Amino acid sequence: MFDYLIVGAGFAGSVLAERLANGSGKKVLICDKRPHIAGNAFDYYNDDGILIHKYGPHIFHTNSADVFEYLSRFTEWREYQHRVLASVDGMQLPIPINLDTINKLYGLNLTAFEVEEFFEKLAEKCDVIRTSEDVVVSKVGRELYEKFFRNYTRKQWGLDPSELDASVTARVPTRTNRDDRYFTDSYQAMPKHGYTRMFEKMLDHPNIKIMLNCDYREIASQIGYREMIYTGPIDQFFDYRYGKLPYRSLEFKHETHDTETFQSAPVINYPNEQAFTRITEFKYLTGQEHRKTSIVYEFPQATGDPYYPIPRKENAGIYAKYKALADNAQNVHFVGRLATYKYYNMDQIVAQALTEYGKIVGMKRKEATIKTKSNEKVFAAAQTSNGASSPAASIN
Ligand SMILES: Cc1cc2nc3c(=O)[nH]c(=O)nc-3n(C[C@H](O)[C@H](O)[C@H](O)COP(=O)(O)OP(=O)(O)OC[C@H]3O[C@@H](n4cnc5c(N)ncnc54)[C@H](O)[C@@H]3O)c2cc1C
Question: Which are the contacts of 132, defined by CB distance < 8 A and separation ≥ 6?
Fold first, then answer.
């Protein structure tokens, strides 16, 4: 008899497995229909011995000290600041658009102050910002929108930006300085030995059993468990009662080249001419030294594995119906990007899983994150010997 059956061994499922086993002594069975743990963050050494990300580049970044500290229990880190160039008009230019992007694109020599005025002149007034197109055009005008955003978004989503919620491009900042970092979070780093190694350590507990190549529907009725943590697609759980929730998919084309470096940046975006959206060269991300190099092309697809929930009003409406069913489901917790039908970064999923664990054990997230079965004993011992609790003793 297991206390929990966890469906999916990505961040959501694995964090909850670790917390339930290590924090509460629960017996957990975690299954995944794929042949590996780590979900979309899975990485492995390819035939040439180069560490690659099977499902496209995963860059860890967060502003949450709690999340970073929690994951640091299972990995050391390699400091890494992500940088991206966009191939536009035969040049490779920094993205997000910054001072250098504008100066190089137009052969200018503007200062930070002047480029601000430049954007203001280009920006088109828009009373109500509804779509992704409105977001960009109202900030940097139509020409930059067309060069950098329009076709990229059309390829990525199969929809024109004018048909997509403002939230899709709301996160694309423009800068008037020369900062060419893709993210500005306080913590930016890659797991030193890769994501899969980090997951292996997270799941390394005698109370956790792992079943791979296993769809939960094949085993759920045959094994005993008290509660389920479900991190798969929410519509599938309810047999598509209200129809299928639409996703955008990707096809990854991996290649290894007999040269030390393939391109001049970790990621180069191709907004316009190509069928793919971007090329990633993994050695930049991992810091690995090797005489060959591996890259991946991403080709957006309408069908295939579910990667990006499509942020449109009608889809939010379908999801709301499934959520109402989920809220009433007995002994099932819905966690993660597929079960909540929203694009989340890895750190947000870790936070979501830690919060869910806090709810299960009736604690605040922070307390629930540091609690382990073994430090409960240390904590109790400190209380008997000193007559008072020692906060230091309760922290691992
Ligand atoms: C191309 C791409 C790039 C990304 N890059 C970044 C990035 O740079 N930085 C970042 O922070 N985030 C990035 N993300 C987001 C990141 O992948 C997610 O935040 C994270 O993987 C979510 O974890 P999860 O556990 O919710 O889902 P997943 O990792 O998808 O795990 C869910 C698991 O459930 C399993 N499952 C589903 N149905 C069943 C079933 N019926 N039975 C058994 N198992 C099942 C699946 O096989 C899967 O392994 C990226 C996402 C994509 C698609």
Answer: 149, 153, 161, 162, 164, 165, 166, 168, 169, 170
Tokens of 111: 């200062």
In ligand 1, the atom with minimum distance to the C-alpha of 216 is 42
Of 231, 236, 254, 280, the one to substitute when testing ligand 1's pocket (max ligand atoms within 8 A of C-beta) is 231
3-state helix, strand, coil in the chain (%, to 5): 40, 20, 40
C-alpha of residue 390 to centroid of ligand 1, in Å: 39
**pTM value?**
0.93
Contact 238, 325 (CB under 8 A): yes
202 pLDDT tier (thresholds 50, 70, 90): very high
Protein residues whose CB sits closer than 6 Å to any atom of ligand 1: 7-13, 31-34, 39-41, 55-59, 215-216, 231-232, 250, 307, 336-338, 344-347, 349
Tens of pLDDT, residues 353-393: 999 999 999 988 888 888 787 665 444 443 333 332 222 22
Gap between the Cα atoms of 167 and 291, Å rounded: 41
User: Could you identify the atom of ligand 1 that is nearest to the CA of residue 336?
Assistant: 26
Q: Residue 322 contacts by C-beta under 8 Å, 6 or more apart in sequence?
A: 234, 235, 238, 241, 242, 245, 341
pLDDT tens digits for 112-138? Answer: 999 999 999 999 988 888 888 888 899
Distance CA 208, CA 210 (A): 7
- Structure-block tokens of residue 355: 């919060």
